[in-house]
Specification:
By secondary structure, the protein is an all-alpha fold. 12% of the residues are buried. It folds into 3 domains: 86 residues; 263 residues; 182 residues, no CATH class. The chain starts with a helix and ends in a 16-residue tail after the last helix. The chain has 14 helices and no strands. The longest helix has 158 residues. Helix 5 runs antiparallel to helix 6 and helix 9 packs parallel to helix 12. It is elongated, with a radius of gyration of 64 Å. Keywords: Coiled coil.
């Protein structure tokens, strides 16, 4: 009992110990899981912080981008407003220049009519080419139908041959050695069939590529025709060309008008250069047209040759495909026949083996039966012998009879079995003979197939060489087609340049009458300048006389002031004379071109100054006179001050009527002496010394009035040649100021 209790306690202790181990293991696993979970929780917290930081950064970036987008939107809005203003201004300018564009459009309509005629002719040529291509396509389709009919006949013949071969190969027997040869033959034929399929696919791909390229050529021609026939594109191009012509010719015409002295030379040079350019363009255009005609003829002949080559290639490819299909069908038939023969031989061999196994089973059964019969007989014989020994020699005769019966039955059974074995041997010999005959036929067929495959390989190699040659020819034709396309593009560009030059020449021809009038204007300007010079010389003498009169009649302290007033008059009177010349220029230009706008510019400081520079004393005097306002003649009641702007090279224009000045200036010297000094001094003070301190430009009305007065009073200096000679000899003419007048349209 104690032993059993101890054993129970030990078993319980071992169970509890194992449970404790399992509990400790589970506890350790839970502790490790807890630590891993804590680590995961800390990592997730870190990732959460990183995600929050990223979210804050993304939020800041989004706010910054929103602000930037707002700033960009405001900038875009201001830019939009500015661009709208600019576009409105440009629209106004374009509407202003639309009249000139309308005139240019009239010429473009004529060019458009000519282009329409050319396009109609080109369209007729394209339609004729399309008809020819349709005829060629119909002929090719008829040939394709014929080839398909021939292919159907060949297919029917091949089907008949396959049926005959199947009927001939209906009964064949094989052996186990034939399996390896048939497998090798099948592998060889599969390799050849794959190669033929690859060749067929390559040939079909090449034909599809040829067809796609021909379609691309046709589509390119159609697109070219459609592009050349589109009137809207033509109108847009003509409008753009006219606009470019106008933009390129307007500054040239303005420069021609500004440079009036070189107009005739520029026109002659321009005409010569344009004539040379036109001759050159005509020669190039004729050369390009001849080259295009020759290229078109060559392309037509090349396309015909290409179509014939493609047709021949199609026929040869179809023949090759048909022959390959026939060979493939024959190979398939041979493979099927071989497989069927193999199956038949396998089935027959299996039957033979089954028969042999059945025969062996039967022989085993007969052996067993014989053994059983032998054992039974031995038992019976022993029993009979024992009975005979007991009973005596009486039953020996029935035993002998039984033994003889057994011998007879055994001999009969053995004879039957021998006959059966002889029959089986005869059947096996017949099967061997049939198999040997079938093997000979298969060898003969394989030799014939090898000959045919060699012939087919030779034909395929020839077809491949022809395909390579045709590919090379197609590449050559494609290069020539690209060359013709480039030549056609160059011809079109030359035609466009010729049209542009024609429009430019028409515009220049319209501008030439205006430029021819410039000679007359220049002659008129020369006459006006001569009259201005004569009047300036006369006014210089009058100025000297006025200075002499003032110095004679004024006291000595006022002498410096008189000098300053004389200096002022020297700068003012030539300017008045030149303003008369400018007025004559304006009147002549107004008579010639009513739409001219005249602007008079002040002298350029970079060029020669109209008056000498001021000295230090003159500058001090000018400043004192501005502050103190000292008068020239104290005895008269009319106050006057010298304008500072009249000394430094920018004289002022008198505001009162200048007819009196011109009358007093044009009077002869002999008649001017009886005039009273008081009236003359008052007139000088009122006309030459002004209170106006601003620069005012002359108007067109002032020019017209001065021209009328100067034309009436110009006869006085012409009647006194001695005075004119004395004026020409006067050295003060070298110090006359000059102003340049720029007439801009």
């Amino acid at each position: 009992m104690k032993d059993t209790e101890l054993s129970d306690l030990q078993t319980r202790y071992s169970a509890l110990f194992e449970n404790n181990k399992e509990v400790t293991k589970e506890k350790e696993g839970l502790v490790s899981e807890l630590t891993s979970l804590k680590e995961q929780l800390s990592e997730e917290k870190k990732q959460g912080k990183l995600a929050n930081d990223k979210c804050d950064a993304y939020r800041r970036k989004l706010n910054e981008t929103i602000k930037e987008q707002g700033v960009l939107f405001r900038r875009a809005e201001t830019y939009y407003k500015d661009t709208m203003d600019q576009l409105q201004k440009e629209n106004e300018q374009k509407t202003a220049s639309s009249a000139a564009v309308d005139e240019a459009l009239k010429t473009s309509l004529k060019i458009r009519g000519e282009m329409k005629k050319c396009m109609e002719e080109y369209r007729m040529q394209m339609e004729q080419d399309v008809k020819r291509k349709d005829q060629v396509i119909s002929e090719l389709k008829e040939k394709l139908h014929l080839q398909e009919a021939l292919w159907a006949q060949e297919k029917a013949f091949a089907d008949k041959l396959s049926v005959q071969t199947k009927e001939q190969d209906a009964v064949h027997q094989c052996i186990w050695a034939l399996e390896a040869k048939v497998d090798s033959l099948m592998a060889h034929h599969t390799i050849q069939s794959e190669q033929r399929e690859l060749d067929a696919t390559s040939s079909t791909q090449m034909m599809s590529a040829l067809k796609s390229k021909l379609d691309a050529l046709l589509s390119g021609g159609n697109q070219l025709a459609s592009k050349m026939l589109s009137q809207e594109n033509l109108e847009l191009k003509l409008a753009a060309a006219e606009k470019n012509i106008v933009e390129s010719l307007l500054p040239a015409i303005f420069s021609l008008e500004s440079e009036q002295s070189n107009v005739s030379k520029a026109i002659s040079q321009l005409g010569g250069s344009i004539g040379q350019d036109l001759d050159r363009f005509k020669g190039e255009a004729s050369r390009i047209v001849d080259a295009l005609e020759q290229d078109e003829k060559g392309t037509t002949t090349r396309l015909q040759e290409l179509s014939s080559h493609i047709h021949n290639f199609d026929c040869s490819l179809k023949k090759a495909v048909g022959s390959c299909e026939n060979i493939g069908q024959k190979v398939d038939v041979l493979a099927g026949n071989g497989q069927s023969h193999q199956r038949e031989t396998i089935n027959k061999l299996q039957d033979v083996l089954q028969r042999i196994s059945a025969h062996e089973n039967k022989s085993n059964e007969t052996d067993q039966q014989l053994q059983q019969a032998y054992e039974e007989l031995t038992k019976k014989v022993e029993a009979m012998i024992s009975e005979a020994m007991k009973n005596g020699e009486g039953p020996i005769e029935p035993l002998n009879s039984a033994i003889t019966d057994l011998r007879v039955t055994l001999e009969q059974g053995l004879g039957q079995e021998r006959e059966k074995m002889a029959q089986l041997l005869q059947v096996n010999e017949n099967v061997l003979n049939v198999l040997t005959a079938h093997i000979g036929e298969q060898k003969r067929i394989t030799t014939q197939a090898d000959d045919k495959t060699s012939e087919l390989q030779a034909t395929l190699e020839n077809e491949r060489e022809m395909a390579v040659q045709l590919r090379n020819k197609i590449q050559v034709f494609e290069q020539k087609a690209q060359e013709t396309d480039t030549l056609r593009d160059e011809w079109l560009k030359d035609v466009q340049t010729i049209d542009k030059l024609r429009s430019q020449l028409k515009a220049i021809a319209m501008r030439i009458p205006q430029v021819e009038n410039c000679d007359k204007k220049l002659d008129r300007i020369m006459e006006i300048s001569r009259s201005i010079q004569s009047s300036a010389s006369y006014l210089a003498t009058e100025e000297e006389w006025v200075q002499l009169e003032i110095t004679d009649r004024m006291p000595n302290p006022a002498a410096p002031d008189v000098v300053t007033s004389c200096e002022v008059s020297t700068t003012l009177l030539p300017l008045l004379a030149e303003s008369d010349g400018a007025a004559e220029i304006q009147s002549s230009t107004k008579e010639d071109v009513m739409s001219r706008k005249v602007t008079v510019h002040s002298p350029d400081p970079g060029e020669r100054s109209p008056s000498p520079p001021l000295t230090v004393m003159q500058e001090q005097r000018r400043r004192r006179e501005v502050t103190q306002l000292r008068s020239i003649l104290k005895g008269h009641a009319i106050p006057a001050t010298v304008e500072p702007g009249s000394v430094d090279g920018h004289p002022t224009r008198p505001q009162t009527d200048q007819s009196k000045v011109s009358q007093t200036a044009n009077m002869p010297i002999n008649k001017s002496q009886p005039a009273s000094t008081k009236e003359m001094v008052a007139e000088i003070r009122s006309r030459l010394i002004q209170h106006n301190h601003t620069w005012t430009f002359p108007t067109v009305a002032d020019f017209e009035r001065d021209i009328q007065l100067s034309s009436k009073k110009r006869q006085a200096p012409q009647g006194n040649p001695a005075s004119l000679e004395s004026f020409d000899v006067n050295p003060r003419e070298t110090k006359k100021p000059r102003t340049e007048h720029y007439i801009e349209e």
